[in-house]
Amino acid sequence: MVRRALLSPPVLISLVVLLVASVLPLYVSGYVLGLLTIAYYFGVFSMAWDLLFGFANEVNFGPSFLIGLGAYTAGILDNLYQPPIALSVAAGVAASMIGGLVLGLPALRVRGPYFGLTTLVAVLMLQNFVVVAAGLTGGEIGLTIPDVISINDKVNYWIALGFMGLSGAILYGLSRSPVGLILEASGQDPVQAGALGFNVTKHKLAAFLVSAFFSGLAGALMAFYLGAASVGTFIDVTVGVQVIIGAVIGGRRTILGAVLGAVFLVALGESLRPLGDLATFIVSAVALLVVLFFPAGLLGMVKGVREAT
Amino acid sequence: MAAPKLEVEGLQKRFGGLPAVKNVSFSIRAGEILGLIGPNGSGKSTVMKSILGVERPDAGSVRVDSREVAGLPPHRIARLGVGMVFQHSRPLYRQTVLENILLGLLPDRLMDVLPTAATDARARAIAERVGLTGVLSRRPATLPFADLRRIEIAKAIARDPQVVLIDEPFAGLTARETASFARLIAEMRADGRAVLIVDHNVKSISALVDRIYAMHVGEKIAEGTVDEVMANPTVRKVYLGGALETAARPEASFGDVQTPFLEIENLNVVYGKAQALENVSLHVHQGEFVAVVGLNGAGKTTLFNAVSGLVPYTGDVRRQGRTLSGRTAATIAREGIVQSPEGRELFGAMTVSENLDMGGHRLTDDARAERREWLFDLFPVLKERQSQTAATLSGGEQQMLTIARALMMKPDLLILDEPTLGLAPVIMEQISKALARLRQKTEMTVLLGEQNVTFALPHADRVYVLEHGRIAWEGDPSRFATEAGARYL
After folding, report:
1. Element (H or E) spanning B230, and its range?
2. What is the ipTM of this complex?
3. Which residues of chain B approach chain A closer than 8 Å at the C-beta?
4. What is the pTM of this model?
5. How confident is the model over A95-109, as pLDDT tens digits?
6. Computed from CA positions of residues A90, A91, A93, A97, in that sequence, does the dihedral angle turn out positive or negative?
């Protein structure tokens, strides 16, 4: 099972894509590299979100709550004390996971749409807190983060790519592992999963924590890449929506598809930029069309064709 | 003698004040199969869920291997040795059959990220036992219905449970598949497991079970061997009704003998892989009261939904000689074939009056008011409750409102789907009286679906028995007990 999984087409294709992506800095401009760097972080956000939506069957409307906690905790720490960057990032991850636990524990007890609403409210609360506690967080103007991991475009690009590759490998592996199987069963039919001897709440909470880990880590790393954090880039509901749409366009329950969706969204948004506000509209319209007519997403369509044969 | 594997003692469960299970006690020894039977609403599912831990019993005890498990969460109970074969198969569709079986073998730990060869071998052994070896690498969506049920059995026995609960083992299976499933269940008995089969009637499981425990409205009505339970007068009364007074009018007395008001011809409905209706033909004359009786899952609701245009079908449904196929559900309802659905589907946040107005939205204000008064006369309790929201009504009042709302549409044909489901006897009587008045005072044509024969027969002019999606008997209600009674026990 393990060997088969390692040699399966999605893994092989991903490796080829990673390889191609890793030599891109030799051919493309710094501007494109910058876009892709952001897209890769969004890819991790979307993959972490797909673990909850696709496998635990919980719609988390607040991915940016976890992302924002990671980014802001790391950024504030750096802004105030300038500890080693790794320490700030670790603190960001810890904050995101604690936030995930605090949010997840009561939220997983409520059923159906209420879970989603709870997560949405959490985003709004965090957003308000950041605005109100402006002395600490920089408020609406944004937070300056004095340190950066590197000022070299290419290094930043490779860090983001490597991080995304590693996160993807872990999340994908997890989704295909025995615990992934249990999580998927818990999401699909909690009663039956319970009758098979699985503690559904435990598995869902664990998924929530894993999702928080990667969201927080990606948020903190992206904050250090940007050298700044603002509500608009990390916490706002539109950020969460972009993460969600990326995962859905890429393909639910595929993990890897989320990267595809995130890159697609960033690329589409960028190439339509000359159109101004119309660009946002077109991106949204494309997302809507995909959700309506291809609910399985880009990767889901490919897999669907393959499984049907 | 060894202690029983499963002991249920004094089990009680109430839902919102209404008792669903009152004082149920039984025990099952190793290597024994007990059949728990009862009509819809008898509480048998609640008993099963209480053993499984999905419902927490209000009182009483459930012991597995002499260990108290009542009130524990399902996963703890499962690990103490209770396995469950669910009626509705919901496998993981993106995984292979083998992976689905593996799922049943996995330990409940978070750190198991690598599968082991031992569990793999064990999954293959279980697959061989239930007859899935040939399809291990296929995905469930490509398998026939019977194989999906086999996956459920494989998952249930994967953990080697001492006690196995099986919900309606033969629903949706053909005769040959039924025989092979019976063998699988008999093997569980041979393995020394205690098996509880939950089903609607004795007949379907009589060859398999060692004993039967029969329930009705939350209580035991009989316990013993198959023959003892089938001969039990209370059981006969619950399933077949007592001495019935019928008031059937002869079929020739209706004016449209040549072209009946509603004709259904060779109707077939397929859900995924399960055939819900097979070559069903029946007809209803103008002004006639026809009852379709059948157990839960026999296909009554599917039949009505086909007539109402809510499910796709093959075959023909004709109203006064004109086919209804191709018409939308809304058109069919607007033209006078109105259903009072089993699920009631009231607008919970609206008041009684508002719900009625929704039914009569196409009438003029005067006609609507007049119709409402007429219905308040038919169901006086609705008049008292007219400004109360529907969600706050009792089950019986909701049922009356559902019927009343359907009548607001001034139907030519009223379809009543299981109006007595889950209702107390006194409420049933009120609804029964209302139906009797409808029949005497109006020209209404009624198609009634019921599993409660006692309720249905007194009103009916003709009766159809629906069994596993087929018409098994058709005739005069007075002949029902002698000719079709045995099918129904």
Report:
1. helix B226-231
2. 0.84
3. 52-54, 73-75, 78-79, 82-84, 86, 90, 92, 94-95, 99, 102-104, 106, 108-115, 120, 139, 155, 158-159
4. 0.78
5. 999 999 988 887 677
6. positive
